[in-house]
Amino acid sequence: MKKFLILTLSVSIFISCHEDKVDKRFEVSSNQVGLINKETSIKQLDSIFSNDSIVKGQKGSQFLNTSNEISIYTKSGDKLLIMEAKESNNPDSKIESIQIIDSRYKTATGLSSDSYFKDIKDNYPVSKIESTLSSAVVFVDSINAYFTIDKMELPMIYRGNTNQKIEANNIPDSAKIKHFWVSW
Prior knowledge:
Layout: H1 2-20, E1 28-29, E2 32-33, E3 36-37, H2 45-48, E4 53-56, E5 69-73, E6 79-85, E7 95-100, H3 117-123, E8 128-131, E9 135-140, E10 145-150, E11 179-183
Antiparallel strand pairs: 1-2, 2-3, 4-5, 5-6, 6-7, 7-11, 8-9, 9-10, 10-11
């Protein structure tokens, strides 16, 4: 009986420790998104995403800027991330910002692209909120992130109005995150 209790306790501890472990491939923090950090260069992406597809922005016409955008897809075609490099056509250029598309990418508190404003405000200090024509942009400096929330989720007074100041208490808890970025 004593051996059974010790075995049960050991298994329980092992399982609970295993469940708390965050998958580093999808962890989001102030200095990383998955296996990418602010020191990651474009040339390192091939090894980081060796099991995925990388699509680099195509050069435009002579009148358009070249694209610094790099999209990462799973082999089955699901978009994971959209990144922007500091410089285009420079393999040593560092990643400057990352839009998180796939909801498996999460912060330690579980914040993901599928989260709601309540998840932001309950877990992180809101640094500032800016208003665009169609979105509220919520900045969370503690994790180097910003989020957009569609103004259709806000009271009517804020829709289509960039002059009306938006405070955190003006955004409903149920407002869905539209976009999630980390920027260095």
